[in-house]
Amino acid sequence: MKKLLLIKYSPEIFLKGLNRNKFEKTLKDNIRRVLKGVDHRFVIDSGRWFLYSEDIDELAKRVTKVFGVQEVCMVKEVNLSFEDICHQALKEIEEGDYKTFKVETNRANKKFPKNSMEISREVGAFILKHRGDLKVDVKNPDVFINVEVREKGAYIYSKKIKGVGGMPYGTNGSTLLMLSGGIDSPVAGYMMGKRGVELHCVYFHSHPYTSERAKEKVITLNEILKSYTGNTKLYIVPFTKIQMEIMDKCREDELTIIMRRFMMRIACGLASIHNISSVTTGESIGQVASQTMESLVVTNAVGDRPVFRPLISMDKEEIMNISRQIGAYETSILPYEDCCTIFVPKHPKTKPVLSVIEKSESVLDIEDLVKDAIENTEVIQ
Ligand code: ATP
Ligand code: MG
After folding, report:
1. What class of enzyme is it (predicted)?
2. Residues 293-321: tens digit of each pLDDT
3. FRET label pair with 332: which of 93, 189, 216, 246, CA 20 to 30 Å apart?
4. 262 forms bridges with which residues in the sheet?
5. Is the peptide bond before 306 cis (omega within 30 degrees of 0)?
6. What is the DSSP string of 183-201?
7. Could you tell me the pTM of the whole model?
8. Is 150 exposed, middle or buried (0-12, 13-18, 19+ CB in 10 A)?
């Protein structure tokens, strides 16, 4: 008997027709990447993906975080013998404290002498013969005993662990995430990555108004995203000069919206230089003054590529739940100021008008400020 991990990927990948191979290959590469340093072997048996390793628990922990993995099952492999299947199924059920069960069989190997109905029925009967205290319940059993009969062997399992789901990372274009130190933006990045979008991050740093610790916090959040994506680059843009200029020359109630427009210009500029097709933010409609419909429209006006806001219709509570699930929450709530909290006006405009804002900005040397910020951007690999 050998222990291994059965990997089930998102059903969406099955629907990709001729492109399915490409999605599968990317998923397999991504799985291999997270398993670096863990001894393992990939085996494919009649279309199913299995992983062997001495440390199955570690494999499961890592693989369930790979986008595109729907579920993993802790499987035991036995010979293609009906007797071995029965004995292993009995052992499997004895590992837990169950009262009712159902056997489910998937027979890909049509040469096996019994069909799946017969296997389920007879394995069930075998279990009942040895364990008179157990009962079959086909509607709502305590445990499903799964039997898969394939070319190389038979596989028995009952324990399943949910994966993150989604699409293989890197199969759906790229985006530059505006990553602040808050709760929302890491969640927005996670959601884009989960749909297969390659993620890069940009952080606007207002040293010395925002501390080194605020920057470290963003680097940590980027690391947390990397545990899902594997290769997220972080661009750190020096933003102090721009903020001082705005404070100096513009109306106080327009500071936020003008600042957001600078962030958008710089993000689009960086995206263009690095060949990234879109920008993503953690905005949610109505959450704060800069996230009213009017503000979003005025901010978008300076963008030259699609801006995605995956959290746009979500409540804070829902966002916080995902933040906890992905392990970002504890870092996000660390109390280090971000640039926006230091430069917040007392009464920010909630309904800015594009032509008015454009006029206010015209006293600034926009092109030069943007160029200077981009040229002095630091990259963290
Ligand atoms: P978050 O929780 O992501 O910080 P927030 O609710 O604090 O969001 P804002 O501060 O208005 O909202 O920021 C809205 C979005 O703008 C953020 O989700 C993020 O995408 C982007 N953003 C804000 N500040 C920065 C920054 N210093 N660097 C990079 N992106 C930023
Ligand atoms: Mg914030």
Report:
1. transferase
2. 999 999 999 999 999 999 999 999 999 99
3. 246
4. none
5. no
6. SHHHHHHHHHHHTT-EEEE
7. 0.90
8. buried
